[in-house]
Amino acid sequence: MSDSPESAPVQSIIPTDISQAVESASQDRNLVWFGLDIGGTLCKSVYFETETSQDKVESNGDTIDIQNLQHYLMSSETYGSSGIRDSKLMLKCVTIGKLKGNLHFMKFETHRMKGAMELASKFNNVSKIVLATGGGAYKYKEDFKQTLGVELIQYDEIHSLVFGIHFILDNVSREIFYWDNPNFSDTPEKRFLSLAPSSVYPYLVVNIGSGVSIILVRSQKDIERVGGTSVGGGTFLGLTSLLTGVTSFDEAIALAEQGDHTKVDKLVRDIYGGSYEKFGLPGTLVASSFGNMNLDEKREKAKKEDLAKACLITVTNNVGSIALLCARISKVERILFVGNYLKNNVMSMRQLAYAVEYWSGGKNKALFLEHEGYFGAVGTLLQHMN
Fold first, then answer.
1. What's the sign of the alpha-carbon dihedral 248, 253, 258, 263?
2. DSSP state of 64
3. What are the beta bridge partners of residue 107?
4. Among 12, 69, 103, 290, which residue has the least CB neighbours within 10 Å?
5. How far is CA 191 from the centre of its chain?
6. Which Pfam families match (predicted)?
7. What are the structural domains of the chain?
8. Are 233 and 208 in contact (CB under 8 A)?
């Protein structure tokens, strides 16, 4: 999601033309439930495995074998060519609405939406609705209907995100963490904060997806989008794919981990011969992203790994600086960075942590969440089942 000139509070959206279908499906309390957050790069899915003493239930005139459905999902941690179940993130014995059960987390690459639809097809005789948020909830609405006979119930993206964060913080004690000593010359330490949702307010949520949205959360009901940028995870993957030929986000991250961005970027020391001490700018600070690539000899020496790392640093620094500016304008100290761009991406987390801490003079810390990327999908379940 890219930035817009003005920001305004957002409203939850439930299409009225299928409200009866929602009400009808909600009455069956023994069925499994899916929530999807279909972004431009990744489709995130949560599956609520409700507690039931029954092996089979009746739904829509069909007999549904719950055990077979459970076995299909739990027998593997991969689905098709891009589906992954994050088994380490599973939450046991949580309550949503009036139901108790286990919450499972899965993701697919959006351009391989067929995999997500195949997974949903395993359940299309259980329920004719799937809960969804994100841009893909609108883009793929007709595909789900025509291919599976399934209605996508659309929920507002920003509200779903915040509701999901609040729910996870309520149910997971070791969820918020930060990096101590994030400078790349030091050994970082991952430290957890124990904060109840009510004590976190107010805070900024920086949601790094294909683009970036920055949301000010004063309370669970007082939510405002205050900024954003079109330079996000999609930018990183797009530029890295263009420059190096990688075809997936995981490949791009793996390549960047091996690179040296200083062979691509122009640093303060390249301009001043060292640090710019008058204004506290260290020589290692990036003065111009890709600033060395106008020189033939520099281009010849730059490897694919270096280009990938420079892409990552460019995007991450941009997100960090805009987030910190929004925090200052909003007079907020806590900044929560979320989104699948950060999943298994310690480099970007450390870069964000260092940038926020350095430019704020230690007043702000970049905070991260274990379940990043899945909050929107969780939020659809909460809004529907509550």
1. positive
2. E
3. 44, 84
4. 12
5. 20
6. Fumble
7. 16-163+375-385 (3.30.420.510), 174-259+302-370 (3.30.420.40), 265-301 (no CATH)
8. yes
Q: Which two tokens stand for residue 4?
A: 């817009």
Residue 190 CA to residue 182 CA, distance in Å, equals 9
At 123 the pLDDT is 55
Measure Cα distances from 79 to 75, 86, 136, 263, 341 in Å. 10, 12, 20, 39, 21
Residue pLDDT, tens place only, 105-127: 988 777 766 666 666 565 555 55
- Provide the β-strand partners of residue 319: none
Q: Is the pLDDT of residue 49 over 90?
A: no
Peptide linkage before 282 cis (omega within 30 of 0): no
Per DSSP, the residues of 66-111 read HHHHHHHHHT-SEETTTEEE-GGG-EEEEEETTEEEEEEEEEEEGG
Tokens of 329: 């304008």
With cut-offs at 50, 70 and 90, classify the pLDDT of residue 224: very high
Query: Which listed residue (157, 175, 305, 357) is catalytic?
Result: 157
Q: Which two tokens stand for residue 95?
A: 């309550």
First to last CA, the chain: 27
What's the pTM value of the predicted model, to 2 decimals? 0.78
Helix boundaries (H) for the chain? 19-26, 66-74, 113-121, 136-139, 141-148, 157-171, 197-200, 233-244, 249-256, 268-272, 296-301, 304-330, 346-359, 375-385
* Active-site residue flag, 189: no
Is 161 buried (19+), middle (13-18) or exposed (0-12) by CB count in 10 A?
Answer: buried
